[in-house]
Amino acid sequence: VYVSLSEQLLFKSGSTKVDPKGQEALKKLATVLQEQKDVNVVVEGHTDNVPMRGSGAITDNWDLSALRATDIARLLTSSGVEPSRITASGRSQYVPVAANDTPQNRAMNRRTEIILTPKLDELFQILDSNSGVGAGK
Predict the structure, then answer these.
(1) Which helix (H) or strand (E) covers residue 118, if one does?
(2) Labelling 4: which of 73, 122, 129, 130 has CA 20 to 30 A away?
(3) How far is CA 63 from its chain centroid?
(4) Under a CB-based contact definition with an 8 Å cutoff, are residues 55 and 47 in contact?
(5) Which tens digit of pLDDT belongs to each residue from 34-79?
(6) Using an 8 Å Cβ cutoff, are 117 and 86 in contact?
(7) Domains of the chain and CATH, by start
């Protein structure tokens, strides 16, 4: 399951901290995730192809996307989702959903995707118990 959230919902331009409106949306998601113990969460930050002109901790789009994903992961854990279930990653500008040729398309590429996946160990156990034959790992 993929949940794609636009940059406008979560962050001010160039910021790595989730704004209050985004925090509320993520807290609601965390409430649902707390009940879904058999699901892992991957948080992927994405950017457009406009180079970051930052200094300090943020020097490029890799940094921006990774730091945004990490802030979301921290917010989910502080809202009760187990940290062992969460992976944060930055994809920078390299997985666009639209060509970076217009302001509207670049805005579509500035997003965070939250990917919900079944815990594979538990899935293999279910397959093993249902098939009578080892599913292999």
Answers:
(1) strand 111-118
(2) 122
(3) 14
(4) no
(5) 999 999 999 999 999 999 876 788 899 999 999 999 999 999 999 9
(6) no
(7) 2-131 (3.30.1330.60)
